[in-house]
Write a structure and sequence with these properties.
Layout lengths: L1 E5 L2 E6 L2 E6 L6 E6 L2 E6 L5 E5 L3 H4 L4 E6 L5 H11 L3 H9 L3 E6 L1 H13 L3 E5 L6
Antiparallel strand pairs: 1-2, 2-3, 4-5, 5-6, 7-8, 7-9
Helix pairs in contact: 2-3
């Protein structure tokens, strides 16, 4: 067993198992992840070390294009396209009659939301460039 001190906490190294203890009181440190933050917090005195943990999808600034095709006679397909495009029922039905049609352009988080709406209704989607957040 060896002791190493660094960055505000002491690690006890025992056969590849890391036991972190609080430098203030020696209590056990528990790791946590909450929203865009992550860190360790002492279960005894509350001392903590925190850093940011921003998901990659939140910082992806690529402009994606979502195209879809579906059955223009299926009300669920028409409603999904209508929700995504903000168009009325008739306009959305006409869009679906044209085949593969551009319904949305935006960044990754919004594209994921749009894709979920369309796929949940059974509409087939194509996203360009390659969308790695599914």
């Amino acid at each position: 067993m060896s002791r190493r001190k660094g960055d505000g906490f002491i690690c006890l190294v025992m056969e590849k198992t890391y036991l972190m203890t609080c430098e203030q009181c020696g209590g056990e440190l528990a790791s946590f992840r909450q929203g865009s933050a992550q860190g360790v917090k002492c279960t005894r005195c509350g001392w903590s070390v925190v850093t940011t943990n921003i998901q990659g999808i939140k910082v992806d600034e690529t402009k994606y294009e979502v195209r879809c095709h579906g059955d223009y006679q299926d009300k669920a397909h028409i409603r999904a396209v209508s929700e995504v495009t903000g168009s009325n029922f008739l306009t959305s039905r006409n869009m679906l009659q044209k085949g593969l049609v551009l319904v949305f352009v935006g960044e990754a988080e919004e594209v994921l939301r749009v894709r979920t709406i369309l796929v949940s209704a059974g509409v087939v989607c194509e996203i360009t460039p390659d969308f790695n957040w599914v």
